[in-house]
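Handout, page 2. Input:
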Amino acid sequence: MVTKRCVVPEEYNYLAAFLTLRCNLGCSYCINGKSGGVLRHREELTSEQWIDGLNGLELKPDLPVTLEGGEPTMHPGFYDIANGVRHPIDILTNLQFDISEFTKRISPEKLNKRGIVGYKSIRASFHSEKMDAEDTIARAKELQDAGFAVGLFSLNIPESTEENMRMAELARQNRIYFFIKDFLGFRDGRLFGHFKYPEGLDGKRKSCGCRITDLLIAPDAEIYKCHRDMYHAEFPLGRLIDEELAIEHRFRQCDNYGTCNPCDLKLKTNRYLQMGSCSVEITPRKKKQKS
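Output:
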């Protein structure tokens, strides 16, 4: 039973429910694996706690709850959560689950529909290091044939160029939406990605004011102001299951600017697929007035 109501400010563009940070692949280039100190294995909410907490949020009608991870389907209560949440949902996944079970247990009507060309409520990552192209296409096609809006994406890692081209052709042949996303972070001494605030990745710790438009909920219900804090389990702002939860859209002091997670600083599309968006707004730290 929903016991509270918490209004999510209208400025928020994205709501991520990280059901688990566990993953069934373990790619060598994983941004979560490379960023250092990421706590993948931590306490995870039960399906009942997720449902009650998420249903207690008041959202704008066009802001879906995105179930993600890690790999969200690894949560033992994934199907109960997907069906129990009253809001429309999106899913970020690697498709390494039983597709037949998925199509039997979840209706396409449960997933968010936005009516925007190119918008897909199931966004599936393809990782050539661990996944087979033909098998991935077959899985995506089975979902699409069952009425789900599916999009496949891969990363523009230099060594994956040929495999990405092959995947693009297979997707075209099967009429499956496929797109390339920026690989983020440092590799072989080079910074990959397009960022609004590249100085946030220079490794030089400094202070700033930071305001984010992503609502990030960790597997243990803690809410964080950025991916960096969430992955390191530092400086939570509150818990999804708190009775008196309040979510504010405001600038907060940060003393870890320079060690940010690339996901927060990248230039990307917003939920309307408009390019040029960034999850955070950074301001210089205000100097204290001398007394």
